[in-house]
Every structure is written in C-alpha cells, then in structure tokens.
Design brief:
Blueprint lengths: L11 E9 L2 H12 L7 E2 L6 E11 L3 H9 L8 E5 L1 E5 L4 E5 L5 H15 L14 E5 L14 E5 L1 E8 L2 E9 L1
Antiparallel strand pairs: 1-3, 1-9, 2-7, 4-8, 5-6, 6-7, 9-10
Length: 179
C-alpha cells in the first residue's frame, strides 16, 4: 500500500528511517571507496551515507504528524547502537555496491522491526523480504566484487535514528529520536 500516492492530489514526501553516519566516518568511507578505483558506477555522495532502517516511500504531507508520532512511540534499548560494516557486496538486482555487517546486531533488527510495525499501523508496508542492513556506496554497478586493498571495518555508533526526506538526490533530516 502506498498511502501517499498522487491520486488525491495532495503533496507528498519520499521518506525513510535510517542511522546517520558521522562526518568523519563519511570521509573515511569515501576515501576507502575511492581506493577501490571503480570505473563504471555512480558514486553515492558521501553526505548521503546512512544505514537504512525502513523505506517508508511516498507519504502525503498530511500524514507526517502521524508518522512522527508513530516513530516516537517505538521502544528502543536506551543505549547507543553499534554496527560494524565489514563486508563488501554486489547486489545485482539493485545494481548496487554496498557495505554490510557480517553480524547484524539483534538491537538493529529489533529497531527495524519496531519501525515496520509502527508504520504498518499507519498503512505503510515495506517489501516483505527480510531486513538487510546496508550502506550503499555506488549505484548502477554492474561489475564483480572489487578487491579492496584494506578490508572494510567501519564501526557505526548511532545515538539516534532519523526520519529523512529524499529530495532531488539529497537527504534532508526531518526528525530524530534517541536510542
């Protein structure tokens, strides 16, 4: 279901929940990515690096208060969340090169599931596949997995989760909640 479709004529926003990366971490990941010497792909701007929790999709602007209230009601562990991004993968159907954790923390899965449940109550459903945490490095990637001179090991320490709006290739934080 896509409650924010254009059938009503209401303005809408493309929304997603994510864990943001700190500026120094963005720079480190971008440097590491540049050492992969990728030739035929579209690099994701480092300002857009994040770990997606849930893609909400198109939501009518009138739904935003309910989305914010739903996210505010999500129960969290009450401590920072640590995720180690240590594996490089090619996601062929998505044509993306991504960083993923070899071990997904239970608290990360619980947060993603709690957000899905909160948004489901508002009529938003996510793709029924299992949650696959990832940070997208490049889009339109068609090659094999590149050889990294230095293994990936980026430790993402999140103290909050954020609702972002995707607008013209840039991600704008709308609200955040502490972990």
């Amino acid at each position: 279901m896509d409650p924010g479709n254009g059938d009503t004529g209401e303005p809408f926003k493309r929304l997603f929940f994510a864990l943001d990366c700190a500026p120094q971490q963005r720079r480190a990941i971008a440097r590491w990515r540049s050492e992969l010497e990728l030739k035929s792909a579209r690099p994701v701007p480092s300002a857009n690096f994040h770990l997606t929790l849930m893609f909400v999709g198109a939501a009518g602007t009138a739904q935003l208060p309910a989305i914010l209230a739903g996210a505010a009601g999500v129960k969290v562990a009450g401590e920072p969340l640590t995720v180690v991004l240590d594996r490089l993968q090619v996601w062929r159907p998505a044509k993306a090169l991504v960083l993923v954790p070899s071990q997904t923390p239970a608290a990360l899965r619980q947060l993603a599931y709690a957000l899905q449940q909160a948004m489901l109550a508002l009529g938003f459903t996510e793709d029924p596949r299992d949650y696959r945490p990832h940070l997208t490095l490049v889009r339109d990637y068609r090659g094999s997995e590149p050889e990294a001179l230095v293994p990936a090991e980026f430790v993402l320490r999140a103290r909050h989760f954020t609702l972002f709006e995707s607008r013209k290739g840039q991600y704008w934080p709308l609200a955040q909640w502490p972990l």
